[in-house]
Amino acid sequence: MAVKKDKVSLGVTIFAFALMTAASVVCLLPFVMMVSASFSTENIIMTKGIGVFPRGFSLRAYEIIMSMPKYMIGAYVVTVALTVSGTLIGLFLIAMTGYSLARPDFRIRNKIAFFFYFTTLFSAGLAPSYIWMVRYLGLKNNYLAVLLPLLMTPWLIILMRNFMKSIPHEITESGKMDGAGDFRIFISLIFPMVKPGLATVGLFLALSYWNDWYNAMLYLPNLDYKPLQYHLYRIVNEAAALKNSLAGANVVLTASLPSTTLKMATAVLATGPIILLYPFIQRFFITGIVVGSVKG
Amino acid sequence: MKPLPGTNRGFFKELSHSRTLILMCLPAILFFIVFCYIPMPGAYIAFTDFKYNQGIFGSRFVGFENFRFLIISGKLWQLTRNTILYNVAFIVLGNILQIFVAILLNEVRLKWFKKIAQSVMFLPYFISAVLVGFLSFSILNYDYGFIPNLFKALGAEAPKFYSNPRVWPLIIVLVNLWQTTGYGSIVYFAAIMGIDPTIYEAAEIDGAHAIQRIWYIILPSLKNTVAVLILFSIGGILKGNFGLFYNVVGNGNPILQPTTDIIETFVYRALMNQFNFSSSAAAGLYQSVVGFAIVMTANWIVKRIEPEYALF
User: Any CB–CB contact under 8 A between A147 and chain B?
Assistant: First the structure.
């Protein structure tokens, strides 16, 4: 839009520029400080506090983690395995369900959708779910306790259905004309056509697996190798966990342990992959939020 | 939607006709049965003196005793008040700020700047609650925190945030806004982008400047989006963001509890720290039942006024 600027409009533009720049800085600053702190010298931080730039310069926190990488690598392996398997399985099931619910000739589609949606309106609560998972399903200290509950959410199913709705029903009908069954149509005709939807829903799933600490905290308290964010939780909040994670490391475990920079470095390592991938994946999330907000 | 051929079938005929589609939904149906519906009857333990080894239906029935205790101790009122007040602050301030950001982003005409600013503000949504808690601790703690050390550097007395319950409502609201504003503004930004550009052109011919354009075109066009989003949030007014409160405040810091304890954190603490299953379940059931009533009422009212915004 080519606008000849009057004074008021020019003022608004300058104001918008300034404020959005400030807001962006505020959003970014804590991350910058985290990275800076992880490269800082422990003693200087403890006297002067963390800053925007590293205070002193030290790689000691990373050296210590690298000298005893067992738990960090274990956490990475667990998290990557859970994220990949959970995303693939969940995505396939969600796509299958979303396609069915988008079929205009599937008459009970709204009843099934409501069956899913109802779980967001009413829930058993934490205690009954916990007892069910632990006492009856026996999932305590079993990675399935993290893998299974995150496989799907009503919102992701509805989001997928909204993507499926953008595919003309004629595609399905042409498949039927050729004598293909519903599942066949889904696999060979629909699946390749709904790639943006798969990417979007898949990334939402992957993010929820990568960032899960809650299910891990509830159900995986005694495993050696915890998912990454729960590993971070323990390093940050439990002094004992920090020392244990370095047991056997080639460092003197005394008061000289740079615990603050170690926590910072662990946080950087636990979040790094997301921040590195972020520029490439964020547009899918934006699409998802917009498509998901359209009522079906 | 136009009726399709063969839509007047009987129920069983329908089942057999769409059996493949039903089978394709079956894993999801089983998922919700196993993880959401089966635990529901377990809420019965809210009415028992639950002992883990006696199981759900072997434990002693005590009626409303657990609820009575929560009420007379004043805990239920405190939890309800905190949860609702925080949500009201999140909804009101959150939506105002999101709309504000979306409008300002739209006023910046440089495409690359718009893209970068939107991405950067969206970033906090992507990190785990654990990291949100740790980042806020790094900024607020007395020893090496960024803000207290600014005070120290200026020779002033540094604030001790973690022992002052009065500042926490402000801190939590700010942290929540920090994490969700970029995310929330996306829907509003999309709504603004959807405005027919010819309306702007007409306004421009009439000599409208930016503020008039925002006031008379953009804000009115966001009315529907605001209405739907607010309705969604009102439905969840009794639900709290456990991750935010648990990680930012710390697990049950007793000094901060009066202003920071919400239903979720109480339910968790009662269960995992005190092993008081029944009390936890009672608070959880209260939340589910009252929350459900609130959604139904909100939906019923909206249906009367504007049926197309209704949730179901």
Answer: no
